[in-house]
Design brief:
With 447 residues, the protein is an alpha/beta fold. Helix content is 50%, strand content 11%. The strands form 3 sheets. Strands 7-6-5-8-9-10-11 form a 7-stranded parallel β-sheet, with helices on both faces. Strands 1-4 form a two-stranded antiparallel sheet. It is elongated, with a radius of gyration of 27 Å. GO terms for molecular function: oxidoreductase activity, acting on the CH-OH group of donors, NAD or NADP as acceptor.
Length: 447
């Protein structure tokens, strides 16, 4: 640290004080001299992690199946970063990755297991557990769980003799609470959290720390592609592999912001990488077996509509433009549950769903036609009758009245009772409106 410079004495409220000024020391490189591996390091959170690690002085090995992106990243960041092709589904690849890293750099200090997949996300995929695709489930588990487990295995093999090192896996909020992702993905991320705590119990006696991070939605290529609407012009390019457009990224970020608990901040891959940096550095030297949740408080808040977000809402979001080309029966279930969840979620959630999904579809003639299919008899609690009621209400009272109704209905556990009460609350204002009377009588007769 540079020597302090003594400044002339100055008076302050009659007292004589010495004012000291020192030049601010440069920020330390938190991974200086360390060697790190980042799987899935060519894109998204992995790429951001590689950049942050390199900036803090680490020698980083990028491991990925995306050779072009991985080699390009290594070339941009300079000689401290190298690329190795690695498919985490194959144990031989992971074993070779660790062996080459130790042979080149003499050690392995940090293993970041980031490689992962979300699973098949065709816009009209049936995401219910009853329609679970066993092969797809196995593939997601093979990448997300088997890959992470094999990474821990071979990282430990290199770290145990030195009695030092840390292993960090990228999990997800889908591994913290239910309803945050497709079933295979959620199961895989719960498994990663379990692997983390179990491995931490074993490896702690060898001086090795094992942790994971669980981020909320980040507008990476994987998440953007989950509800991609654009068509790729090149027929030889898989739409799921095409780089996201700026518009798609902004749309994804906007949706995540709408569901976030912490307002005024947009979660980025860099934010997650900084959390990983903390777990990789000596600043967390006594942290092990921990799942660092990077979600702005989403998992502690009741404002999130988790289940509709991934299992119901984003298939809607991705397929609004495709309504005309699909059968009415195929689309009706999504419209039904969209309205149902609007009526039973919290106020913020109901408003968000209405503004972003219900209202645009209400203004679409095709969806109005689809709503006419929902005329089956039954109690109010059934989705078909919720949809029928919404259709008739909008037809007779307009979308603004429907919006008001949803706002009042949000948050109560008994939507039938709540809607019944809402009609009575407004009877003074609507007494002269014949269509409103008809609606009220219809609701009361179904009570």
């Amino acid at each position: 640290m540079p020597a302090a410079e003594v400044m002339p004495e100055k008076s302050l409220e009659g007292k004589r004080v010495h004012v000291w000024e020192t030049a601010a020391p440069p920020l330390p490189k938190r991974l200086e001299g360390k060697v790190a591996i980042v799987t899935g390091g060519a894109r998204g959170i992995g790429e951001a992690t590689v950049q942050v690690f390199a900036r803090h002085g680490a020698k980083v090995v990028v491991a990925d199946v995306e050779d072009v992106d991985g080699e390009s990243l290594a070339a941009r960041l300079g000689p401290s970063v190298s690329f190795v092709h690695c498919d985490v589904r194959e144990e031989a690849d992971i074993e070779r990755l660790v062996d080459r890293t130790v042979a080149r750099h003499g050690r392995l200090d940090v293993f970041c297991s980031n490689a992962g997949v979300l699973g098949r996300q065709a816009p009209r995929s049936d995401l219910s557990i009853a329609a679970l695709d066993a092969e797809e489930f196995d593939e997601v588990m093979r990448v997300n769980v088997r890959g992470a487990a094999l990474g821990m295995k071979h990282a430990a093999r290199a770290m145990v003799p030195r009695r030092a090192g840390c292993i960090i896996s990228v999990a997800s909020v889908a591994g913290v609470m239910g309803g945050m992702g497709p079933h295979a993905y959620a199961a895989s991320k719960h498994a990663v959290v379990g692997l983390t705590t179990n491995a931490a119990c074993e490896l702690g006696k060898h001086g090795i720390r094992v942790n994971c991070v669980s981020p909320f939605g980040v507008a990476t290529r994987m998440l953007v592609n989950a509800w991609r609407e654009v068509e790729v012009e090149d027929e030889h390019v898989d739409p799921a592999d095409a780089p996201p457009t700026a518009e798609e990224v902004e749309k994804t970020e906007e949706m995540v912001r709408g569901l976030a608990n912490l307002k005024g901040v947009t979660l980025t891959a860099r934010d997650v990488a900084e959390a990983i940096l903390y777990l990789a550095s000596d600043e967390s030297r006594y942290v092990s077996g921990h799942n660092l949740v990077v979600d702005g408080g989403v998992t502690t808040s009741r404002n999130l509509i988790g289940l509709p977000l991934v299992t119901l809402v984003y298939p809607l979001y991705a397929s609004v433009k495709a309504i005309e080309s699909k059968s009415p029966e195929d689309d009706q279930q999504w419209l039904t549950y969209c309205v149902l969840y609007s009526l039973v979620t919290l106020f913020d959630g109901a408003t968000f769903i209405y503004e972003n999904f219900v209202r645009p579809m209400v203004l679409n003639q095709q969806t109005l036609n689809l709503w006419s299919l929902s005329s089956k008899s039954g109690t109010f609690g059934k989705p078909d009758d919720v949809l029928l009621a919404a259709e008739k209400f909008i037809e007779q009272n307009g979308t603004e009245a429907f919006e008001k109704l949803i706002s009042k209905a949000g948050g109560l556990s008994n939507p039938k009772k709540n809607m019944h009460a809402t009609f009575h609350d407004d009877r003074d204002d609507r007494e002269e409106n014949e269509s409103w009377k008809m609606n009220r009588l219809a609701w009361e007769s179904s009570s």
